[in-house]
Amino acid sequence: MEDKSTNSTIKETIAGARKIVIKIGSNTLAKSDGTINNDFLRNLSASCAALIKQGKQIVIVSSGAQVGGLSTISGWARRKDIHYRQALCAIGQVELIDKWREAFNAHGIHIGQLLLTKDDFENDHRSLNIRNTLFTLVDEGVVPVINENDSVSIEEFSIGDNDNLSAQTAILWSADLLILFSDIDGVYTDNPKTNPKAKIIETVHNVEDLRKQITIGATNSFGTGGIETKLQAAEKAAGFGIPTILANGGKADIVTHLADGSEKATLFLADEDCLRRVLGGK
User: Fold this and answer.
1) Closest CA to 234 of 27, 11, 5, 13
2) Using one digit for the tens of pLDDT, what is the confidence trace for 28-87?
3) Residue 200: which of 220, 219, 185, 183 has the closest Cα?
4) 231 and 163 in contact (C-beta within 8 Å)?
5) Measured distance between the N- and C-terminal CA atoms of the chain, rounded to whole angstroms
6) How far apart are alpha carbons 243 and 140 in whole angstroms?
7) Are 13 and 51 in contact (CB under 8 A)?
8) Where on the phi/psi map is residue 261: left (φ > 0), alpha (ψ -120 to 50), or beta?
9) What is the rounded distance in angstroms from the CA atom of residue 25 to the CA atom of residue 45?
10) Which of 49, 145, 146, 249 could be 28's S-S partner, Cβ–Cβ 3.0 to 4.6 Å?
11) What's the rounded Cα separation, in Å, for the pair 133 and 148?
12) What is the tens place of the pLDDT at every residue in 156-215?
């Protein structure tokens, strides 16, 4: 589960990655009152701009449509009806993407919006078009901001959480690294919010082995996924040779501190055996 002797550090992983998918969960993006945390957006966009200047390409998978909706129409907060929820996401997605546009515009960077559903990844023509659009945007220096299209998705056709959406995006785009930002520092042996003796697991070689040794908690306040969806995402990405970092997105300058090796997080190493199988045994 953890191997202190491994030379695959987070610092080295980020340094060696050119194409990076960064996923931001609702708990990271929201303030305590449930509205959009603009300071976080400004901080993250500055960090992304610095990575882009280093020659890296960035794709963002951003939760927060409902958070954006509540920032605009707070009176709908207690309405749980599916139609109100989808309508709230329609309103909130406009607010969310505008805040992302404003944050990146401060660094002279344009953004592009992609709203996707499960069907888009399961249809070969649609997935090819997504891939081509991603390549075109990043090649032109534009940062794609992706979210599930919650205004039209229903449970039967829904991806359900942006952890798995980000993994599917990383695989489709042939990314070098997936970063999952949540409200925890990484994977712990137990829930650190309830167990002060819980220890962070810095390196994971096999997700299935990890599941047997930790306590899987429930989802938290604003998000749709708990630690299990993050493990699913890391497992999917690893199978295509893509390492994953799970880190606390709420910490100041988190991207910078991960890149310089001063911040702890959990690094899920890529599964080299699966990668060889994907490449046909090469």
Assistant:
1) 13
2) 888 877 788 899 999 999 999 999 999 999 999 998 777 777 777 766 556 667 777 788
3) 185
4) no
5) 27
6) 25
7) no
8) left
9) 15
10) 249
11) 16
12) 445 768 899 999 999 999 999 999 998 889 998 887 778 888 889 999 999 988 888 876
Task: Please give the distance of CA 36 from its chain centroid, rounded to a whole number.
Answer: 17
| Tokens of residue 99, six digits | 């805040």
- pTM for the whole structure: 0.87
**Bridge partners, residue 61, by sequence:** 23, 146
Are β-strands 19-24 and 177-182 bridged in parallel, bridged antiparallel, or unpaired?
A: parallel
| Residue with token string 């023509």 | 125
The first and second tokens of residue 30, run together, are 């929201």
Q: Residue type for 160, please?
A: G
